[in-house]
Structure formats: C-alpha cells, structure tokens
Design brief:
Elements: H1 42-46, H2 54-67, H3 70-75, E1 92-104, E2 111-122, E3 125-138, E4 141-149
Antiparallel strand pairs: 1-2, 2-3, 3-4
C-alpha cells in the first residue's frame, strides 16, 4: 500500500479528528487477517524478522498502517521509490484486509504482486483501497516497489 496521500492534505483544524491507535499487544489478534496473534504474525516482522513471501510482506505492511508504524513502512519500501517522509493520516483507521490474488513472490522468485482490498474508516466514513502492489527482492529481502490502483 502506498497511501502517501490519495487526496489533498487537510489543513490542521479544530474539526480534524485523530483516531486513536488501538492498544496492540503480542497477544492481540493480528490486523492482517490471518488467524494468529500479532506477536507471532506481523509483530515479529515489525521487530525485524524477514518476510518469507511478498504476501507476508504485504500483510505486515497493512498491519503497520493499522498500528501506525511508519518506520517499518519506510524500511520495507524499495530505496528507488521510497518517499523521504511518510505522513500517516491520523483520521484513518484500517479495519480489514482482503487478499484477492498473488503472482509469484515465493522464496524461489525475485518479483511478485499482491492484489488486495484494504477497508478503512476515514473520519467516520467507510472506504476501501483496491490496489495491485509490486514487490521485488532488494539485497535478499522482499520490499514494496510500486502499485497500481485498481479502482
């Protein structure tokens, strides 16, 4: 998910609402959608373990948006396409991830794609992001390279 911003930035105002980040512990359900605890799933990737597949990296990047871990998102972004700064919108709460399809992206590949739909709430309004993300190996590790928005 690139989500640098898909709409013009809002000026700071009293009406802008910050959605609190839910309390996440190692025992919390992982927000990536797999039936696992955060600490055994995406939490270990956020802590430094390597993603074995591009789908695992995609799920962990979604979870990083959910917990607002911008450092992880930048660390797993290809250096050729990575922004200098990532400004996560405090009014967005990521709610659910659907993996719609993958191509390649295993331990035996150097590239892969993940097509997904990420559901969110933006200042009280439901929305979704439908995207096909491209991943490549960089220095042996999977990294997010680019995306095409599907809708």
């Amino acid at each position: 998910m690139s989500r640098r911003t898909s709409r013009p930035r809002r000026p700071p105002a009293a009406s802008a609402r910050t959605v609190p980040v839910p309390e996440i512990t190692a025992a919390s359900p992982c927000s990536c959608g797999l039936p696992a605890e955060y600490g055994a799933c995406c939490g270990r990737l956020h802590a430094g373990a390597a993603a074995p597949t591009c789908e695992a990296l995609m799920r962990s990047r979604y979870a990083a948006f959910a917990v607002r871990d911008a450092a992880y998102l930048l660390r797993t972004w290809h250096p050729g396409t990575r922004p200098e700064v990532l400004d996560l919108d405090p009014g967005v709460r990521w709610e659910r991830l659907e993996i719609l399809g993958t191509t390649e992206g295993s331990a035996f590949h150097t590239t892969g794609t993940v097509t997904f739909r990420a559901h969110f709430e933006d200042n009280g309004r439901a929305g979704s992001l439908h995207e096909k993300s491209r991943f490549v190996r960089c220095e042996g590790a999977w990294v997010y390279e680019s995306a095409v928005f599907a809708d």
